[in-house]
Amino acid sequence: MDGGSEYENNYTATLTTVTEGEWAGWSCYPGGDPFEDLAGTFYFKVGDDGRPVCAFRAERRHMNGGGFMHGGCVMTFADFSLFVIARDAIVGSPTVTATFNCELVGTAREGELVECTGEVVKAGRSMVFVRGLITCKGEPVASFSSVLKKTSRRTT
């Protein structure tokens, strides 16, 4: 959440389209969220059905002590994904995660591709309701729902 802290926010997301390698044709937002920069990079593109698809490749650093994807990583990816899913509904509005519900129902292992799709359930004036499904190898990893709250910038 942006929180309107008294500290200067020096992070500026830059929509970047990858031109080489495994993620060529995908986009990402480096520099916009320090925690997501640490946990990701997470990518997205518009799928064949016109809806966004988010993805990343599971690495050792994403695993828990049992060798399965850490639940915190899954939820961080879900939070990134819900903002991508809601992009058109929140354009031009500072927005924060107000509620977040997640059911961890499966897992991913190192080296596997993790994907997310979802939809805006309802976009209101100040709140946007989103739901999504994270999968790996076609099997569910997590389902989630969230409410995004459009905010205004605080002045000092």
- Contiguous low-pLDDT stretches (5 residues minimum) are 1-10
Shape: globular
**What percentage of the residues does DSSP assign to strands (E)?**
35-45%
Number of helices: 3
What percent of the residues sit in helical stretches (DSSP H or I)?
A: 10-25%
Largest sheet: 6 strands, antiparallel
User: What does the radius of gyration come to?
Assistant: 16 Å
Number of strands: 8
Strand order of the largest sheet: 3-4-6-7-8-5
In N-to-C order, the SSE pattern is EEHEEHHEEEE
Sheet/helix structural class = alpha+beta
Q: Which quaternary structure do these chains form? A: single chain
Distance between the termini: 18 Å
Mean pLDDT: 89
Q: Would you mind describing this structure in some detail?
A:
The protein is of the alpha+beta class and 156 residues long. 16% of the residues lie in helices and 37% in strands. The protein has helices at residues 34-39, 71-85, 87-90; strands at 16-17, 27-28, 43-46, 52-57, 95-104, 113-123, 127-136, 139-150. A six-stranded antiparallel sheet has the order 3-4-6-7-8-5, with helices on one face. A hairpin with a 5-residue loop joins strand 3 (43-46) and strand 4 (52-57). The protein is globular, with a radius of gyration of 16 Å. Mean pLDDT is 89; it is low at 1-10.
